[in-house]
Write a structure and sequence with these properties.
two-stranded antiparallel ribbon; alpha+beta; five-stranded antiparallel beta sheet; 13 helices; about 300 residues; single chain
Length: about 300
């Protein structure tokens, strides 16, 4: 299960002549693991296309270098701003990812990529578990059923961390015992020879798994726009942050447009725009007269409050 780091080094050092477009900044990152969480990583395995491929597809032209760089950047920004998708689908990237099972189950809900995960029917999973850092050990939010509240402290935090370690270790001990691999403190010489496809059910969700994940740029950016959001669960957000580093290296113009028009932007509804127009006309508008729900109103006010005042 543990990736062959020597093989990865060989892959990094090997060079092959090619006529396809390459990106030096991403070439330098190929086969290099970006650490995530305590045992995880994101590694770029391969890619196809670059910023030029997006422009080429948009213009339906085989010519390269026939436009100024500034014009190409302007076109990419236009495509991103108006949510064109097909030109961005011309670029693809493949990652090797090591991640906890519970993160993988969140991730797989994005049904827009080709995925091949290590199978615990054929392989024995390593004894590696995700244990949160104390600063990420938070209580359940009282206002958000899928969010976190205040950070646990003192004896409560220590007790939870002990439980996570003990439960994961005990379940893996029994997993090995059922497989017949030995290593159980209760019965170090005894194994039951249970099929791997059955023994795996005893593993905890913080056990690490691995997969290859391949997506086109359009769908990758859709994934990142959701998982880089501040409301996304921390454990998947840090994977998205590592992947964003690779996208910045791979397609810097497209990524800058993505960060400008998607990550750094907020979409106003028709009702929100109507309220904003009334306010710009000098009318005082309160939530009960706005036509917006309390949540919509609060979201709009939070965005407007974050906008810096105009100079002068």
């Amino acid at each position: 299960m543990t990736p062959d780091h020597d093989l990865s080094a060989d892959a990094r050092d090997a060079t092959q002549p090619t006529r396809r477009a390459t990106v030096p900044a991403l070439e330098a990152m190929l086969q290099t693991a970006l650490p995530v969480l305590d045992h995880g990583f994101v590694r770029v395995v391969d890619y196809m296309g670059d910023d030029g491929a997006i422009v080429q597809a948009a213009r339906v032209s085989y010519g390269r270098g026939t436009r100024k760089v500034s014009e190409d950047a302007g076109l990419i920004r236009y495509l991103m701003r108006h949510r064109h998708s097909t030109p961005f689908e011309m670029c693809e990237i493949k990652y090797h990812v090591k991640l906890p099972i519970f993160v993988a189950r969140q991730w797989i809900r994005h049904r827009m990529a080709s995925v091949n995960e290590v199978s615990a029917r054929y392989s024995v999973l390593d004894r590696e578990f995700y244990i949160p850092e104390p600063r990420h050990l938070a209580a359940q939010s009282v206002s958000n059923r899928q969010g976190r509240g205040s950070v646990l402290e003192g004896d409560a935090a220590a007790a939870v961390l002990d439980l996570l370690r003990e439960d994961a270790g005990r379940c893996h001990d029994h997993y090995e015992l059922m497989l017949g691999e030995g290593g159980s403190p209760e019965a170090p010489e005894v194994g039951y020879g249970l099929a791997r496809e059955l023994a795996r059910m005893n593993l905890t969700l913080n056990t690490y798994t691995q997969w290859y994940w391949k997506a086109d740029l359009h769908n990758l950016l859709g994934f990142l726009s959701l998982r880089l959001d501040a409301h996304a669960q921390y454990e998947i957000r840090v994977y998205a942050e590592a992947m964003l580093q690779t996208v910045r290296a791979w397609v810097p113009v497209a990524c800058a447009a993505f960060e400008e028009y998607r990550l750094g932007a907020f979409t106003f509804s028709a009702s929100m725009l109507a309220v904003l127009r009334r306010q710009l006309a000098g009318e005082t508008v309160a939530q009960p007269q706005s036509g917006l729900s309390r949540r919509e109103w609060d979201e709009m006010q939070a965005v407007l409050a974050a906008v810096p005042p105009a100079p002068g």
